[in-house]
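Q: Mind making up any chain with structure tokens?
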Amino acid sequence: MATTICFIIWVLFVTDTVWTRSVRQVYEASDPEDWTMHDFDCPRECFCPPSFPTALYCENRGLKEIPAIPSRIWYLYLENNLIETIPEKPFENATQLRWINLNKNKITNYGIEKGALSQLKKLLFLFLEDNELEEVPSPLPRSLEQLQLARNKVSRIPQGTFSNLENLTLLDLQHNKLLDNAFQRDTFKGLKNLMQLNMAKNALRNMPPRLPANTMQLFLDNNSIEGIPENYFNVIPKVAFLRLNHNKLSDAGLPSSGFNVSSILDLQLSHNRLTKVPKISAHLQHLHLDHNKIRNVNVSVICPSTPTTLPVEDSFSYGPHLRYLRLDGNEIKPPIPMDLMTCFRLLQAVII
């Protein structure tokens, strides 16, 4: 039980690191010297709460243009409007901006003036979901830590787009129009601190090449990926959470070592075309294999090897760590093989 609690705490820590490392910085109290009462102007199209002087709320107002942003503003909310362009002029005085939410507008790449975003030297979060973008916008400020581009029409990533974004920890490109030809070997060059990469719901048939080395969370659900190259995970030695649900993976498309990668703790392969359980690492804790074409579980093949010199009582600590196994929606008939429980002694839930 203590081990399970520790794992849950670790998972929460890893996930929160991606999402909240910068949030703690963003929500620090602003220096009173950064703004004064005579600077407390407010665009008539927006709302400026007196209790939150660094925020500007302009969402849901049918705006077609971005108003002039006061110099004191850190947080700018412009979602759910009719904005088509991002010019430089409204941001001339907005040197303190940390957060911009432009979700659910009508912004195109042609509508973004070249220096409009890169001039925001302190920007950490940029939300451009549900717009009309056809490629990842560039140039972007070097300070950026999270870039959210879900549900656009992105099919291109211009060369060098990420070359200066060494502070980026999260990149969300889910639900776009990415094909394999969108990626070059150096596409992700420069993303030295990227931890979470989401490219679910695109049109990929192959795994993207040369991912950033620090990637810990890789989400590729709902593509058409058919196989994984041999030694693919060597370039991302820290990957811990891997989602490949709803793809076209088959046994022939997996390398001989399967997913025997010591860093992977949570592996999701639901809704694919697998007929057998792939090899896994002894460190793996959660395995989702539901809705494949698996007929039986050959424990002698999938059971990770453990040192034979270990005393029986130590096999719980040094043996396989698998705690959750999902196999429903396959062609397996109960009962569960007893040697499965013998191998994976820490199993707490098996769905079959």
Q: What stands out?
A: The radius of gyration is 24 Å.
